[in-house]
């Protein structure tokens, strides 16, 4: 079994990363690209994500619904964080990401979750929506490593990530799984952000620099990137530019999940007053829309599609 990267990083270098990550939480918070003018270490004011000094976990457990290379035969060991630095109007998990349903977890408790997942036979520890909790994840790692953690870590993100934070994860995470949601900055209004495209492209380039294309051993991912692209109605996701970017600026060997499961949720549900705000999002995608997305992926030379 391949050794996870964090074991080679060493305790001293990991301690440095933990200290640097703590500094990112101070005014202005630089854990994510929003750079909210709050000091999260003081825990007295909250920024856009409303996260404070502690991690907040909604749930954790083996998950068989992720991409096949993560699931294998033993499941992906997911830890679902609350809070998100995006506020997607169609979010399928808005109770977690925006209503923040969950419980605070200390670094020791977070470490015990990782070890429990390992004990259940999961192939990895999959942090879902980790962006605003990079400092807390790093702080938990020494406890988990000392107690025998040996699984690769998965960074499962919406793609709106800070380069400052990502660089602290170099040599810590073996697998990145980012979204690329849009390729037209105007569409960022559906996630309450103005600079999603430029920020996500820079983040994906950094992730790819760190781990490269997906490596699968014995049917299970051990290192690399899985890129998700959710096809949205009316071409809102900008699929052609997304596929071009992945193929030409990352790699034609990228592992890409072109996702067909969009359904109206949260503020996109076609009932009540909100239906008038987002009528373009109030329906599922058609078979023709999804088929065209897949054709665009192939047209740009992408061949590893989930």
The CATH architecture designation is Alpha-Beta Barrel
> What is the assembly state of the chains in this entry?
single chain
Count the helices. How many? 10
Give the overall form: globular
Q: Into which percentage range does the β-strand content fall?
A: 15-25%
CATH topology: TIM Barrel
Largest sheet: 10 strands, mixed
Account of the 3D structure:
The protein is an alpha/beta fold and 306 residues long. The protein has a single domain (5-305), classed as TIM Barrel. 33% of the residues lie in helices and 17% in strands. The chain has 10 helices and 10 strands. The protein has helices at 5-9, 11-24, 68-71, 94-97, 107-119, 134-146, 163-168, 196-211, 239-250, 287-299; strands at residues 55-63, 76-81, 103-105, 125-128, 153-157, 175-178, 215-217, 220-230, 255-259, 304-305. Strands 1, 2, 3, 4, 5, 6, 7, 8, 9 and 10 form a 10-stranded mixed β-sheet that branches. A hairpin with a 2-residue loop joins strand 7 and strand 8 (220-230). It is globular, with a radius of gyration of 19 Å. The model has no long low-confidence stretch (mean pLDDT 95).
């Amino acid at each position: 079994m391949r050794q996870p990267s964090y074991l080679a990083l060493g305790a001293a270098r990991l301690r440095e990363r933990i200290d640097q990550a703590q500094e990112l939480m101070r005014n202005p918070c630089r854990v994510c690209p929003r750079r909210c003018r709050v000091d999260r270490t003081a825990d007295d004011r909250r920024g856009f994500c409303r996260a404070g000094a502690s991690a907040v976990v909604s749930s954790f457990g083996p998950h068989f619904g992720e991409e096949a290379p993560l699931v294998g035969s033993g499941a992906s060991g997911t830890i679902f964080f609350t809070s998100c630095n995006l506020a997607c109007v169609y979010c399928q998990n808005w109770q977690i990401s925006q209503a923040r349903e969950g419980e605070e977890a200390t670094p020791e408790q977070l470490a015990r979750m990782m070890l429990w997942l390992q004990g259940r036979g999961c192939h990895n520890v999959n942090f879902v929506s980790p962006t605003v909790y990079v400092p807390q994840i790093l702080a938990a790692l020494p406890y988990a490593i000392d107690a025998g953690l040996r699984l690769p870590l998965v960074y499962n993100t919406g793609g709106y990530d800070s380069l400052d934070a990502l660089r602290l994860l170099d040599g810590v995470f073996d697998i990145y799984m980012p979204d690329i949601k849009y390729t037209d900055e105007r569409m960022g209004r559906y996630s309450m952000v103005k600079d999603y495209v430029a920020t996500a492209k820079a983040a994906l380039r950094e992730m790819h620099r760190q781990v490269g294309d997906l490596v699968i051993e014995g049917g299970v991912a051990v290192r690399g990137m899985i890129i998700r692209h959710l096809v949205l109605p009316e071409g809102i996701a900008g699929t052609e530019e997304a596929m071009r970017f992945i193929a030409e600026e990352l790699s034609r060997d990228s592992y890409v999940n072109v996702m067909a499961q969009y359904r109206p949720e949260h503020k996109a549900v076609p009932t009540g007053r909100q239906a008038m705000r987002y009528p373009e999002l109030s329906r599922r995608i058609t078979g023709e829309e999804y088929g065209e997305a897949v054709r665009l992926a192939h047209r740009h030379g992408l061949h590893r599609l989930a």
